[in-house]
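Sequence in, structure out. Go.
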Amino acid sequence: MAACIFCSLAEGPEDKLVYRDELVAAFNDVNPQAPVHVLVVPRRHIESVEKVDDPQLLAALFEAAHRIARDRGVDKSGYRLLFNVGPDALQSVFHVHLHLIGGRRMGWPPG
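Output:
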């Protein structure tokens, strides 16, 4: 899907990425909500997490997020992993993306 910004970012230059392997890529959120705010996305276009039918891909998203949390130093203090699904959850880009948010104390409820 050529018009998807997350597809373009996932396949873009290495210097724009936080992480990339054969299944997923990760990059900093352009509107960060915390000192660490990284988006982890599948390299192939999938509109929403509810359409992911590959357990290996789901595992790859979480494994990459955990690795990045360790690399960014938020693994000990804590971090949040979040999928927004659909318009009411404020999903604004319709390509699966897992938010990794950390580096500050989180509030509850989140929204």
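Check: Residues 5-102 form a domain with the HIT family, subunit A fold (CATH 3.30.428.10). The radius of gyration is 13 Å.
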